[in-house]
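Consider the tokenized backbone below.
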């Protein structure tokens, strides 16, 4: 008997050790590969944890990776989630996309230059900033954080796309890699268009071979493109005034496709060539363009002792209206949970920024669809109408950021807590539906004294329907 116990103990210890090792391995993986693992590599997770990760571009200087959304009949143009990571002092070369981007600066500082109403504008963005780059709008990004890596998360809305999966980049600056769209015109045409000789133009068009992410300076040879990003030739309109322009919708929609003018100007500025016409321009004119929205500098829309949340819709930040996307940020303290709720008008995408936790999602028929452990960099999505909740693990806070597929006010329907539908519908009808006396139901439903973000349960957590094997349960109990 004693011998058996000893063996049992050894077995339990081995089991625990194996679990520990697996957890450590997992943690390591999560840290190394920010922005999800390789496609299909993850062995666990749930059906609503996005695993279809694809590297779009990667060079020494940076990487872009996307998590592809699932195409279905109701969502022919699913949202993809992009992760951009850039090393210090690098440039993401000028380009435009056939997709709308909502950018969120996750870490670092970035200077973005883009064409707004035919004018080149530049603005610095920092951690927590949200900004929209419309489809067809030319832009570049430069990591200006001193010795700092830059990480950005973006939603990629392909509703205006060409149908190439998942989206298409059109590089303006380029050479042999990436190839500039200009190259397609042929040297003669280009030489005529720029009014320079082919000899002048050729080296410009052939030199860059470093890929879409290039170093600006340092030990790496600065590329031709990078050097004139630094040059003083470029005409950049000083940003004198910011405004959130919500009235000139008509005008802004035009901006979705670059006009001849913006093309010409951009190309001239990129090639460092002066144009007489431009010199005559009234330089003192202010360019009005939407300001960014910083999530970290806002007071949370909801806050209690167990966490806070911010939801930004089109009312709070007009540019979101244009692409009909909402943005949110949630921070749960260790063990806390977002009360079970439903998004009645939107699908929700979430990216874990910090911590670990679990996401539970329920099918319409009342069976558990997913109960997945998530960690930093994981991406999950919750279909519209599906009830779900997010729970922070006991080891620390859970911070996640995400997008919703509507810019309208998304009023979540809570299923538990003081503001829940259970509470507001309390009465003989609800009692009859559960087939228990009203008073009994009321007692249960009113037991929770908090709303939206709920404290952790003081009792040991119930692990769902799946009973762990007896030996594991035993082991956990004896070592806790
Ligand atoms: C943006 O950042 C760069 C580099 O740090 C700096 O030189 C420039 O003045 C900044 N521009 C604005 C408008 O703050
Ligand atoms: C081309 O450049 C020359 C000077 O090099 C200038 O005289 C001429 O007007 C330019 N033509 C056009 C169409 O810009
Ligand atoms: C052009 O600049 C002058 C000053 O140099 C200013 O008085 C005028 O209002 C400007 N015009 C426009 C259209 O901004
Ligand atoms: C999230 O909450 C934790 C405390 O629970 C806090 O330490 C952390 O700074 C918060 N994160 C942000 C981004 O505010
Ligand atoms: C509930 O619906 C899901 C998805 O349609 C299905 O996979 C599952 O088997 C259903 N469960 C029950 C108990 O009907």
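A designed sequence for it:
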């Amino acid at each position: 008997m004693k011998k058996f116990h000893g063996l049992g103990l050894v077995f339990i210890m081995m089991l625990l050790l194996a679990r520990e090792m697996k957890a450590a391995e997992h943690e390591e993986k999560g840290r190394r590969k920010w922005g999800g693992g390789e496609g299909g590599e993850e062995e666990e997770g749930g059906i609503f944890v996005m695993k279809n990760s694809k590297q779009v571009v990667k060079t020494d200087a940076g990487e872009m990776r996307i998590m592809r959304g699932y195409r279905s009949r109701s969502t022919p143009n699913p949202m993809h989630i992009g992760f951009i990571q850039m090393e210090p002092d690098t440039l993401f070369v000028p380009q435009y996309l056939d997709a709308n981007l909502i950018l969120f600066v996750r870490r670092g500082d970035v200077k973005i230059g883009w064409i707004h109403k035919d004018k080149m504008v530049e603005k610095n963005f920092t951690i927590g900033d949200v900004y929209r780059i419309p489809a067809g709008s030319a832009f570049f990004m430069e990591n200006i954080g001193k010795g700092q890596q830059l990480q950005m998360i973006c939603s990629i809305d392909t509703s205006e796309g060409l149908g190439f999966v998942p989206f298409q980049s059109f590089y303006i600056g380029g050479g042999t890699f990436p190839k500039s769209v200009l190259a397609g015109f042929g040297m003669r045409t280009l030489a005529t268009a720029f009014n320079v000789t082919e000899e002048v133009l050729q080296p410009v068009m052939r030199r860059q071979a470093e890929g879409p992410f290039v170093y600006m300076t340092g030990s790496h040879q600065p590329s031709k493109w990078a050097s004139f990003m630094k040059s003083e030739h470029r005409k950049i309109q000083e940003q004198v005034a910011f405004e959130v322009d919500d009235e000139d919708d008509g005008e802004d929609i035009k901006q979705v496709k670059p006009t001849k003018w913006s093309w010409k100007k951009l190309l001239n500025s990129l090639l460092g060539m002066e144009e007489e016409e431009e010199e005559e321009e009234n330089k003192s004119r202010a360019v009005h363009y939407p300001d960014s929205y910083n999530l970290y500098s806002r007071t949370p829309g909801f806050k209690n002792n167990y966490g806070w949340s911010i939801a930004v819709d089109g009312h709070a930040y007009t540019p979101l209206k244009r692409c009909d996307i909402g943005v949110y940020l949630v921070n749960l303290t260790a063990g806390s949970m977002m009360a079970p709720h439903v998004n009645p008008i939107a699908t929700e995408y979430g990216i874990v920024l910090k911590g670990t936790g679990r996401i539970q999602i329920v099918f319409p028929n009342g069976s558990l669809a997913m109960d997945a452990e998530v960690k930093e960099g994981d991406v999950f999505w919750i279909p519209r109408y599906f009830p779900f909740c997010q729970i922070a693990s006991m080891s620390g806070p859970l911070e996640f950021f995400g997008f919703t597929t509507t810019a309208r006010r998304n009023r979540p329907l809570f299923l538990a807590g003081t503001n829940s539908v259970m509470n507001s519908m309390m009465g003989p009808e609800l009692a009859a539906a559960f087939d228990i006396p009203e008073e009994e139901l009321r007692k249960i439903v009113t037991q929770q004294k908090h709303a939206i973000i709920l404290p952790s349960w003081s009792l040991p957590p119930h692990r769902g329907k799946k009973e762990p094997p007896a030996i594991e349960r035993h082991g956990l109990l004896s070592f806790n």
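The chain has a mean pLDDT of 79.
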